[in-house]
């Protein structure tokens, strides 16, 4: 039986890191790097860390932080709590009417996901286990990682840089200029070395016809996958049509919310690679269940992630617990919010990274290094 756990404080820490070069996708541009960390502390002094997805809109980080301390924290402080999975389901169900009332399905899912991540970290630390082992006794100790966040215009340089620090798999962003992107992708493919794989991500940037044309034109490149070639809410007929046009596996999942959506995506068979983001929906509780379902159906589980260091490490633990042939996404653009964790992580060797040693996540944010970028800290600690 799980020891009685009582959370006595829940903090939301907001950071904003200025960027020398904005991060661009087919749908928008990040002018700075935001992050929201969740810090939970129990009545024994055990601390757990989580991360809430907040990349868009630009004002989203502060909103998520306030949502955590004003709405989610009062539901959990100073009461005996169930297991992480049961509490995740409880919080999701308890906020269903609020989600309908506000229309904010994304923000609530993201805040609950970040809380779930921190609660898993805390409970694993209390149990003296790594997060991966707390989720599965069969968890691996290392995962394969791929270099991501590579704009097609910068890809030649960035792939070379990623290769030099140990990566063997690379994902480039397309969906900006059809002909130019296609030409550059072909050049990248021609320069691959034995054992290396190239993936492409359109971030929902193509129309149906453009998606069809791009998949046909790249069918002979042996891409590891084509991610979100069209809008995620396109009907099943279009997704099935796209899957039938090419030998390239289709990937998606970062923009799906809720167990039914993932169940449908897995059952349809159009997506060969399932990519939930543990800071955006589900946390470890929801994403591990999706990973298990995906693997049982013969799909690959490759967690999406584009954020700071806490969520990245959590994604690695979930992947290690899930097993299989999945890969960890690591955005290789400069990002102190990703790098300012102790101990230093990840270190890539021949495309693989070892999980951090230690309890829970095995890392903590380096708040001293991040102090000049912290813009807000909200604390919920009153008895309800």
From TrEMBL:
Entries under InterPro entries matching the protein: Enolase-like_C_sf, Enolase-like_N, Enolase_C-like, Mandelate_racemase_C, Mandelate_racemase_N_dom, RHMD-like
Ranges where the Mandelate racemase/muconate lactonizing enzyme C-terminal domain occurs: 155-249
CDD domains: MR_like
Pfam families, sorted: MR_MLE_C, MR_MLE_N
Entry keyword set: Magnesium, Metal-binding
Cofactor: Mg(2+)
SUPFAM superfamilies assigned to the protein according to its UniProt record, in alphabetical order: Enolase C-terminal domain-like, Enolase N-terminal domain-like
Official protein name in the record: Mandelate racemase/muconate lactonizing enzyme family protein
